[in-house]
Amino acid sequence: MTATRFVAMPTTDAEHLWNGGRDAYDRPPETIVSDGPGHPCRHCLENIDAGEALLVFAYRPFPELQPYAETGPVFLHKQPCARYAAEEIMPPVLTTSRDFIVRGYSENDRIVYGTGAVTAIGDISAYGEELLGRSDIAYVHVRSARNNCFQCRIDKVKAPALVEAGA
Predict the structure, then answer these.
(1) Does residue 166 register a pLDDT over 60?
(2) Among 167, 4, 9, which Cα is nearest to 84's?
(3) pTM to 2 decimals?
């Protein structure tokens, strides 16, 4: 059994946009007003309420450009929000649809073929854990099953470092 955690967009990425930074396509984010559920914030991993301003922008949740570095539209509260912290619990944004794409990636950030599956919300944790139990999978993305938009990442929980006796 592999312990897992749900990981939101890094705060440094969100702060970059909140502070006027440009997106993955070197464009400023667009500001729109939420009309209700369907605008999941990738930083707090909650839906943005109706009437709240949000940023929509191109996001690439990979460290560098390469053929498998998918880029797509995502949402972020326009006003700073706290990053999702209950990483051992499936985030609220993953309860707003009946299913999501769950897909494994290798250590070099490439899709591991054959791992992508449209997965019912009740099975996301188990399938993510199954994938992360494989030696060829470094992390997992959860994406919209209808639009392929990045939702969050699932990582292995790192084991605490062993402390040598007498150290």
Answers:
(1) no
(2) 9
(3) 0.91
